[in-house]
């Protein structure tokens, strides 16, 4: 079963203590699609400028990513320049140029409309909601958001939450959104706002799934070789949604496994800059790490 | 099978956002013993002053804690006054008077010498090592330490590590001890210094067991009712060692379960001031929470 990812496609310039990468493929939809395409066919909605290298589009296609929804518009591609220092917990944005992404009103191609598994990467809640409403056959719509929207369009975020099935956020965001310090209590607050599942990402401390059925905790996969944290969250979402779409299931058991796949795919992403590590990853490697994670959490 | 706990017995005065408790029972050996006595017979080595209330000694006895090794000396009992604010992650020490604990040279009573499971709570590495060498029948000796000793008696801590089987420390301490930021790498460094097991406590983020057999991750039990974090670490050690002693086992499987018992007992401790919550806890409640934890981590 296919999965749809809607978000940004960018060219990133990144510095970390382990090196530097210039004008490399980035953006939430790119990370999401690369990750999800390890599991199933992916449909991508995004926008790039005239300067976007054709080789990246080709690479999407080679991974089974449908780029019918990837529009090329006059102007330049979204650029982000960022830096990580020390323990690399926080991305410091040095420059951001939204370019063609700034005016983007995502339109889902008719051929995508039957997609049942949908991920709305971080964007304006208004844009996310417009996409959501186009997906009338969706079984599972999961959204991401970020501190900027929670602070500047709280009503928009709340409206979005009323119409999606799931929210994937980090620990800071769920606290900011609810004003509740305790993460379990905060995530339970979100369940009252609409979604039936909340995934809280806690970086090196792993992730947590909160549903009506209860709580599930999973550690991060313990890679000791982190070179560039960019895209970890969107890769997580890609692994999670990719697994759910391939099993066509949204049971509690499937969701738990999906968190493990998200965790493992994110652990691969951060082991190199941009999408280099994911580009060379194979599903066997993912399955191997999921098996290890299972072993490392067995009580 | 009995477990031995060596450490401080104190009278604490504690302020948290949830209230205040004055001159209440505290100290590492008290928390450890209360916790371990949920599982098995406990032998306590410690020192108190002439002012230590007899009712606390009686309460130890009623819980099956052997107080042969609890010495009463001329002078006053160890006093600690501390405060927690905000998210209560850090204890702020307002006053500390070591009193009789300052000169304490722990001597293990002859009747305790055959104890096979031994916990050396935080103390000077020299004092810990002296106790360790008295325990010639021990199957498992686990030590705690703290930032003060790592900074001020690093050689002592290293000597101790060379003669114990296990170390229980928090995330900051294992980083400080090894100079390694990544917790898994840091814990593996400790394995090279002597111990065959390292438990890293990460507060609300749970704990990690590192042995030659591999890694094990466990979340904290998600209590949302934290009133006073004092004693969480020593209660954890008490639950862990208590479970190991009652099963008389130190296999990887037993160690994993022991972390779960430690986690759950710590979650009870923090739900009230001092030892109030543990005093009224029963083993059935502990088993219930361990079962929940198992459910919340099942992949």
Overall body shape of chain A: globular
Q: In terms of quaternary structure, what is this? A: homodimer
Helical proportion of chain A, percent range = 25-40%
Rounded mean pLDDT of chain A is: 96
The low-confidence parts of chain A are none
Instruction: Please tell me how large the radius of gyration of chain A is.
Output: 18 Å
Distinctive features:
homodimer; nine-stranded mixed β-sheet; four-stranded mixed β-sheet; 13 strands; 25% strand; globular
Description:
Two copies of one chain form a homodimer. Chain A is globular and about 50 Å long. In chain A, α1 (28-36) packs parallel to α8 (232-247), α8 packs antiparallel against α9 and α9 (252-269) crosses α11 (283-296). A nine-stranded mixed sheet of chain A has the order 5-4-1-8-9-10-11-12-13, with helices on both faces. In chain A, strands 3-2-6-7 form a four-stranded mixed sheet. Chain A starts with a strand and ends with a helix. With 299 residues, chain A is α/β, with parallel strands linked by helices. The first copy, chain A, has helices at 28-36, 54-62, 125-134, 147-152, 154-161, 171-178, 183-191, 232-247, 252-269, 276-279, 283-296, and strands at 3-6, 10-16, 19-26, 42-48, 65-72, 78-83, 92-97, 117-120, 140-144, 166-170, 197-201, 207-211, 214-218. Chain A binds chain B through residues 87, 181-185, 202, 204-206, 208, 214-219, 222, 224, 256-257, 260, 293-299, and chain B through 87, 181-185, 202, 204-206, 208, 214-219, 222, 224, 256-257, 260, 293-299.
